[in-house]
Design brief:
Elements (H helix, E strand, L loop, with lengths): L9 H18 L18 E7 L18 H9 L1 E7 L5 H10 L3 H4 L15 H6 L4 E6 L14 E3 L8 H10 L7 E6 L28 H32 L3 E7 L14 H4 E7 L8 E8 L3 H8 L14 H4 L10 E5 L10 E5 L3 E6 L4 E2 L3 H4 L7 H8 L3 H11 L4 E5 L17 H18 L10 E2 L8 E7 L18 H8 L2 E7 L5 H10 L15 H6 L13 H7 L3 E6 L22 E3 L8 E6 L8 E2 L12 E5 L3 H18 L4 E6 L19 H24 L2 H4 L2 E7 L22 H4 E7 L12 E2 L4 E2 H11 L16 H4 L11 E4 L6 E2 L2 E2 L3 E5 L2 E5 L7 E4 L15 H16 L15
Helix pairs in contact: 1-7, 2-7, 6-7, 12-13, 15-20, 16-23, 19-20
C-alpha cells in the first residue's frame, strides 16, 4: 500500500524531517568521526547517491545563497569535496538521468528528448556494479519515474511521480538491511520539483528575486514555495547521509547532486548555467579531504567511470565519461577543458533544440531553430501557482519586464557569453566584432563534437513558430465539396488523374491524418470559419429549409456576431474574399440570413447556399432538353445580383472572380485571404458533354473531378508564376467531408459522407507554399500528425499574426509547424465529433452518435456512452476490428472524454428521442 501525502501537509513532513536531522546532529557526531580509519585500498566501498530533482545550484547556502539555508548540504561539504563547476549533460530529467546511468551522452545512448529511454541493449549502471558483486538498489526518482526499473536495479521502489515516501522508505530499508554484499544505493527525492508545497515558514520578506526574473508578488510567493521544497530536500539529504555512514561505515562513497536546474525561466530546459550547472558534493572519509573544494569542470557522464574506478572495475572505452577520482583524491586540480551540453525538448511543452559548449570563461549556445518560440511548462501551464502571467502583464507597462519576457521566448541563432564578467549570461556577445575569434573557435569546437556524436537536429515535438518578419503571407483555402479521401491521384486514386492538384502536392506537403470537424457540409464549413467545433453554434448538419432546421434542433444560420477567421484577418489589414459554396445561412426558404460580408469578407460570390452575388447552375444533360435550373429556391430570395451559368463552368467562374480579387489586392499592396470553395464535386453531376462517357454515376463524378482539377489549375498557375505571390502565399486544399456513396472513394476507409467512421470525416490535405513550407518537407507525406479544420484556424491565426477577440476560445491547436513541414509531432489533445441528427443510421444498425480520436485510438459510441467501438487506426484504418472489450481502460478513458465534451454542447436532435433509439 502506497502512502499518499496531502500537499497541504508537506510542511509537516518538512518540519519532521528537519527535526529528525537536528536530533541526529545533537545525539550523533556531527560529521563522520575523523578517527575512523578507512579500509585499505583493497576493500571496495559502498556507494550512495542522493539525487535531488530540479534544484538550481545557486539556490543553496552552500553555493552562496543568503535567503535559503541548506545546512545538510553544508554538513556534507564539511565531510568531503564541493565542486563549483559540475554540469549535467542535458537540462531535462530523462536525458540527464540516462546520461548518469549509462555514462554516455544523449546522442549516443538514445535518450535525447525528455521522457525518452536509452537504448535497451546498452549496458547500464546497475549491470556494471552487479558484475562486481554489488547489490544495486533504487528508491524514488532515479531513472525518469517508471523508467527506473528498466535500468536493471536489484530493487526499485517508490519511483512514481512525487512518491514522497521514497526517502523515508529508503532510510528504513537501509537501517534494516542485513547483507554482506557491498551496496550501491540510489535515493532520488522529487524535491524541489513542482508542485511546490505551501510556504509556511519561509518569510516573504527574506526571499530574493534573481536579476534575470521579473519582480512581481506572484514571483516572490512562488519562490517562497520553491524554497520550502528545497528545505524538505535538504532535510532528506541529512537523513540519508546519516543512515549511510551509521549503517555502512566510513568506507562509503557518498555523492549528492541534482539532475539540472529548477523550473524557472532560464533554468530547466535551458543551456544557461542555471539549467546545466549542478550542485555536486562528494564524501569518502580517508580518501577525499574534508572541507575541500574543486574548480575542475566535471560532467554527469563522469560519475559512472568514477564509481567503476573506485570499486576497481575496468572502465569501458565506449563510455563518454572519464573518472574524476584523481580530482577527488587531490592528485589533479583540473579535469575537462570544455563542457558540452544538449537539449532537444520536452514533449510539446518545450520544443527548442539547442547545443552548447562551455569553457572556464566562455559559453557558446547554438539554437538550432531560432524561428521557434521558446515555451515551457512555465509559459503554458496555467494554475493557481503560476506566475508567468504576472510577468507578461507587467511587461505591458514596464519595458525592462517586457525585455525579460521577450528574451525568454525569443532566442537568436547564436549566443556567446563571457562568464568571467557576465555570470548570469545577460549580454550576448555573438554579434560583437571584438569577440569574433572566441565565437569562431567555440563554434568550431561544437561542430567537431556534433560530428563525433552523430548528433541530428531532430525536432521531437510541436513547436510554436515566432512571427515571421516581412510582408504578411497570403492565404488561399480550397475547400472541395464531397470529395473522397482517395479520389485524388496523389492520394492513391487510380480511376482518373488530377494532374493540377497532383503538381500542388508534389511541390508541397500532404497529410493523411487530416480531419474535418463534421461529416457533412455546413458544420464542416462552420469549423473552418470559426475555429470552433460546429456543434457549439448549433450547426450539426446541412442547413436546409426553416422547418427542417427546427426539427433537427439546429440554428437557421451561423450567428454573424461570433468571431470568425476572416473578420480577424480583415481587422489585421487583410483583403478578404469568399468565392464559392457558403452554406452557413441563406438557403432554401431562409432569406433573412446575414450576407457573407457580415462575417468579415470584403467581397463574395456564392451559389444557392448563401446570399449576396450568386452564380446559379444550369444543369445540361445534353439529351435534347433545355438545361434545368438548379437553385433550390435561391433565385426567389433576393439580396444581390444573380447570374446563371452552365453547371460544368461554375468552378471556373469562382476561379475567375478569385483572380480578379487577387489582382485588386496585389495592386493595393494588401495581403489577402481567399476562400475558393467550389461546389464540385457535389451532386448532381453535370460535366462537359465530351466527358460524360457512359453516364454512370461514377463516370460522371470522375468527369466532374477532372474538370474541376483543370479549372483550379489557372489559380495555381497565377500564384506559382508570380515570384511575389509564390514566395509569400500558402495554399491549403482539402475536402469538406467524405464522398457520396457510389460516386467518390474513401479507399480503405469505412463509411462515407454523413458518417463518423473515417470515410466520412477524414479528408486529403495538401499544403503548398514554396516560401513558407520547409524545403526538406517538399514532396513528402506527413502520416503522423493529426490535424483538423479547427487546428487550421489556430495555425493561420499564428501565421498571419491576428489578435484573438476578447473572450474567443479556439477549439484547435496551433499546428503551424506541422503544416509548414517543420515537425511531424502529434497534437496534444483529442478531437471530438457529434453526428448529424438526420443521419441516425439504419434501424438494425444505428449510427454512432459521438466519436473521439486520440493518438492512434478512435472510439465511437451512442449519446449515452453505450455500444462503444474502439479501433487502433495505425493497425486498422478500415475500422474492422473492435477492440473495446479487450482494452477496457482506453475505452473507459475515451468514453469519459467524449461524453464530458458532449455535455458542453447545446442540445440538438441527436439523442434518446431519435426513433431508431426507441
Amino acid at each position: 500500500m502506497t502512502l499518499k501525502i496531502d500537499p497541504s501537509h508537506y510542511w509537516i513532513l518538512a518540519t519532521n524531517i528537519c527535526a529528525l536531522a537536528f536530533s541526529q546532529v545533537i545525539f550523533q557526531t556531527l560529521l563522520v568521526p575523523t578517527d575512523q580509519v578507512a579500509a585499505d585500498s583493497g576493500e571496495r566501498p559502498n556507494i550512495v547517491f542522493f539525487l535531488s530533482d530540479d534544484h538550481t545550484r545557486a539556490d543553496s547556502s552552500l553555493y552562496g545563497a543568503t535567503d535559503i539555508q541548506t545546512p545538510n548540504m553544508e554538513r556534507l561539504a564539511k565531510a568531503g569535496m564541493t565542486f563549483s563547476q559540475a554540469f549535467v549533460v542535458s537540462p531535462s530529467c530523462a536525458p540527464s538521468r540516462a546520461a548518469l546511468l549509462t555514462g554516455m551522452t544523449p546522442a549516443h545512448n538514445g535518450a535525447e528528448a525528455n521522457h525518452a529511454r536509452p537504448d535497451a541493449q546498452l549496458k547500464k549502471f546497475p549491470a556494471f556494479l552487479q558484475e562486481q558483486g554489488y547489490e544495486v538498489v533504487a528508491f524514488g526518482k532515479v531513472g525518469h519515474y517508471a523508467q527506473t526499473p528498466e535500468y536493471g536495479f536489484d530493487l526499485a521502489k517508490h519511483f512514481t511521480y512525487h512518491d514522497d515516501v521514497a526517502v523515508s522508505e529508503a532510510v528504513k530499508w537501509l537501517d534494516n538491511r542485513n547483507s554482506e554484499k557491498p551496496l550501491c544505493l540510489f535515493v532520488g527525492t522529487n524535491w524541489p520539483h513542482v508542485p511546490w508545497p505551501p510556504a509556511t515558514d519561509v518569510p516573504l520578506e527574506s526571499v530574493t528575486i534573481p536579476s534575470t526574473h521579473v519582480r512581481t508578488p506572484e514571483t516572490k510567493q512562488a519562490r517562497a514555495k520553491y524554497y520550502q521544497a528545497i528545505k524538505i530536500m535538504d532535510g532528506e539529504l541529512g537523513s540519508v547521509f546519516d543512515v549511510a555512514y551509521r549503517k555502512l561505515g566510513s568506507n562509503t562513497l557518498f555523492i549528492h547532486t541534482s539532475d539540472h536546474g529548477a523550473q524557472w525561466p532560464f533554468g530547466k530546459w535551458n543551456l544557461y548555467d542555471d539549467g546545466i550547472r549542478t550542485p555536486l558534493v562528494v564524501s569518502w572519509p580517508g580518501r577525499i579531504a574534508a572541507e575541500s573544494t574543486s574548480d575542475a569542470m566535471v560532467s554527469w557522464i563522469d560519475l559512472l567511470p568514477t564509481v567503476l574506478e573506485a570499486v576497481g572495475a575496468p572502465v569501458p572505452e565506449s563510455l563518454d565519461g572519464k573518472s574524476i577520482l584523481p580530482v577527488l583524491s587531490g592528485q589533479k586540480t583540473s579535469h575537462r577543458s570544455e563542457i558540452f551540453t544538449t537539449h532537444s525538448g520536452d514533449g510539446n511543452f518545450n520544443v527548442y533544440p539547442s547545443r552548447s559548449v562551455r569553457t572556464d570563461q566562455f559559453k557558446y549556445i547554438r539554437n538550432l531553430y531560432p524561428e521557434f518560440q521558446f515555451d515551457s511548462h512555465v509559459t503554458k501551464v496555467k494554475n493557481e501557482h503560476a506566475y508567468w502571467s504576472s510577468w507578461v502583464e507587467k511587461g505591458r507597462s514596464v519595458p525592462a519586464a517586457a525585455r525579460k519576457v521577450q528574451r525568454y521566448q525569443q532566442r537568436p541563432a547564436e549566443e556567446l557569453y563571457d562568464l568571467s564578467t557576465d555570470p548570469h549570461e545577460k549580454h550576448n556577445l555573438a554579434q560583437e566584432s571584438a569577440y569574433a575569434n572566441q565565437l569562431k573557435e567555440l563554434s568550431g569546437k561544437l561542430d567537431v563534437w556534433l560530428r563525433e556524436q552523430n548528433d541530428k537536429p531532430t525536432v521531437f515535438g510541436m513547436p510554436t513558430l515566432l512571427p515571421r518578419e516581412g510582408t504578411p503571407p497570403n492565404v488561399i483555402t480550397v475547400f472541395i465539396d464531397d470529395m473522397g479521401w482517395q479520389d485524388l491521384s496523389c492520394f492513391g486514386g487510380q480511376a482518373d488523374q488530377t494532374p493540377r492538384i497532383d503538381q500542388l502536392a508534389q511541390e508541397g506537403l500532404r497529410f493523411t491524418n487530416f480531419y474535418v470537424n463534421s461529416p457533412i457540409c455546413s458544420p464542416s464549413r462552420t469549423a473552418l470559419t470559426t475555429g470552433n467545433f460546429p456543434a457549439r453554434h448549433r450547426i450539426t448538419s446541412y442547413l436546409a429549409r426553416r422547418e427542417l432546421n427546427e426539427q433537427r434542433g439546429m440554428a437557421q444560420w451561423l450567428d454573424a456576431s461570433v468571431p470568425t477567421l476572416p473578420r480577424m484577418l480583415s481587422q489585421a489589414g487583410y483583403a478578404t474574399g469568399h468565392f464559392g459554396k457558403w452554406h452557413m445561412g441563406g438557403q432554401r426558404d431562409v432569406g433573412e440570413a446575414p450576407l457573407i460580408p457580415e462575417y468579415g469578407f470584403d467581397a463574395s460570390l456564392t451559389n444557392f447556399e448563401g446570399l449576396g452575388p450568386r452564380v446559379l447552375p444550369l444543369c445540361d444533360a445534353f439529351d435534347g432538353q433545355e438545361p434545368k435550373r438548379h437553385d433550390l429556391g435561391s433565385a426567389n430570395l433576393g439580396h444581390g445580383p444573380i447570374e446563371w451559368e452552365d453547371r460544368s463552368k461554375i468552378t471556373q467562374r469562382y476561379v475567375d472572380r478569385t483572380l480578379e480579387f487577387i489582382d485588386e489586392a496585389t495592386a493595393e499592396k494588401r495581403p489577402f485571404y481567399v476562400n475558393v470553395w467550389p461546389d464540385d464535386v457535389h451532386s448532381p453531376f453535370f460535366p462537359p458533354k465530351a466527358m460524360r462517357g457512359d453516364e454512370a454515376k461514377r463516370t460522371l463524378y470522375l468527369a466532374v473531378l477532372k474538370t474541376m482539377d483543370q479549372q483550379l489549375g489557372a489559380l495555381f498557375d497565377r500564384v506559382r508564376n508570380d515570384p511575389q505571390l509564390r514566395d509569400n502565399t500558402l495554399i491549403i486544399l482539402a475536402s469538406d467531408n467524405g464522398h457520396e456513396p457510389g460516386a467518390g472513394s474513401g479507399g480503405p476507409l469505412r463509411g462515407a459522407k454523413g458518417s463518423l467512421y473515417e470515410g466520412g470525416i477524414r479528408s486529403p490535405l495538401i499544403v503548398w507554399g514554396p516560401g513558407l513550407v520547409d524545403a526538406s518537407a517538399v514532396g513528402n507525406t506527413n502520416d503522423t500528425t493529426i490535424v483538423s479544420n479547427v487546428d487550421v484556424v489556430a495555425s493561420l491565426m499564428n501565421l498571419c499574426q491576428v489578435e484573438s477577440p476578447e473572450g474567443y476560445q479556439c477549439d484547435g491547436e496551433d499546428l503551424l509547424a506541422a503544416l509548414l513541414g517543420k515537425s511531424t509531432a502529434q497534437r496534444n489533445g483529442p478531437l471530438f465529433w457529434r453526428r448529424p441528427p438526420d443521419h441516425p443510421g439504419k434501424p438494425n444498425a444505428p449510427a454512432p452518435d459521438l466519436a473521439v480520436r486520440d493518438k492512434q485510438w478512435k472510439l465511437l459510441c451512442d449519446i449515452h456512452g453505450k455500444h462503444a467501438q474502439l479501433y487502433d487506426l495505425t493497425e486498422d484504418i478500415g475500422e474492422a476490428n473492435n477492440l473495446a472489450k479487450s482494452n477496457l481502460q482506453i475505452t473507459k478513458r475515451l468514453k469519459q472524454a467524449v461524453l464530458k465534451w458532449n455535455d458542453t454542447l447545446p442540445v440538438d436532435g441527436v439523442g434518446a428521442t431519435d426513433p431508431i433509439r426507441q
